[in-house]
Amino acid sequence: MTDNNKDAYREAGVDIDLEAQAVKALVSQLTFKRNGEYQMASDIGHFAGFVNFGSHVLALAVDGVGTKMLIADELKDWSTVGIDCIAMNVNDLYVMNLEPVAFVDYVATNALSLEQMKQIGIGLNEGAHLSNISIVGGETATLKGLVQGLDLAGACLGIQEKDKVISGEKVVPGDLIVGIPSSGIHSNGLTLARRMVTEHGSYDERLSNGRTIGEILLTPTRIYAEVLKLTAITQVHGMCHITGGGLLNLTRLSGYGFSVDTPLEPQEIYRWIQEKGKISDSEMYRTFNMGMGYVCIVPESGVAAVSSIFPDAKIVGRVTEQPGVLLKGKEIR
């Protein structure tokens, strides 16, 4: 791997550090809290937000497909982006051992297309099936002049008994980090990926596996629904959905550190992007999931259970006393 361009994602149009500052600026103004029953039960900033509901908590997550929609437009194939939309939401619930139950979608476009809407519906229905949720409603907005093209987002409702929620507070040094493979790039980092395709290749270019770059980039996000089976049979101290920010997502779990010494093997598309853009390892691992879409933090006694539910899982590192994220001994920032 190369170690040259350290700011490729920012140069492509996405500044991760600025986004973090912008979110803090917004959240700092959200001071009002509901009075009466059903108050907030969590701070803003975790993978999902909680509402007290008796012996249970209700949880809400929201996310979209992002600039992956532009690749769907380029290939005239919107049939799987609905899976991405649901996956990006339900995976954020699974990390806290929440069961997703209901979903609403939001489509914004400059001009309605019956074919686009039909294909989006196909993907949303498949995503609902894979995660066992009901799509209970949604909204479609034609916003000519404000939106150029098509945007797809959604919000998901989850539920869990309070004493079964996994927040990461039980993570301790010595715990093992078990990585579960992604299906590919998922729905993060596509701004950088698209730039590499535009400048150094084409969506029709085939990699060694015979698939085109376009097909590979449209591979839908993996849905990790089996997590609910895992938490029912073993102790899990924390879980993480590796999305935008890459390995830095791990810092959302605990103030302890995370040392990833033997990362999963990234898919070929990542090598192609890195070589074409001469992008540093650090930049790749803070932009993409790099072949690892989900992480379980477990004591050594829990590794066998993870492997029984996810046969493709692998120990990639361990939790450390020293805060931060290390990749083969080098800090990711």
Q: Which runs of at least 5 residues are low in confidence (pLDDT < 50)?
A: none
Q: Fraction of residues in helices?
A: 25-40%
Which oligomeric form is depicted? single chain
Q: Give me the side-by-side strand order of the main sheet.
A: 7-9-6-10-8-11-12
Shape: globular
| Global mean pLDDT | 93
The counted number of beta strands is 12
Percent of residues in beta strands: 15-25%
- Radius of gyration over C-alpha positions, nearest whole angstrom: 20 Å
Order of helices and strands: HHEEHHEHEEEHHHEEHHEHEEE
Number of helical regions: 11
**From the helix content, strand content and strand pairing, which structural class follows?**
alpha+beta
Major sheet description: 7 strands, mixed
The separation of the N and C termini measures 18 Å
Give a description of the structure.
- There is one protein chain.
- This protein is 30% helix and 24% strand.
- The chain has eleven helices and twelve strands.
- The strands form two sheets. It has a seven-stranded mixed β-sheet. A five-stranded mixed β-sheet has the order 1-2-5-3-4.
- Strand 1 (49-53) and strand 2 (56-64) form a beta hairpin.
- Helix 4 (81-94) packs parallel to helix 5 (114-131).
- It starts with 7 loop residues before the first helix and ends with a strand.
Which descriptors would you attach to this protein?
single chain; 333 residues; alpha+beta; seven-stranded mixed beta sheet; five-stranded mixed beta sheet; 11 helices; 30% helix
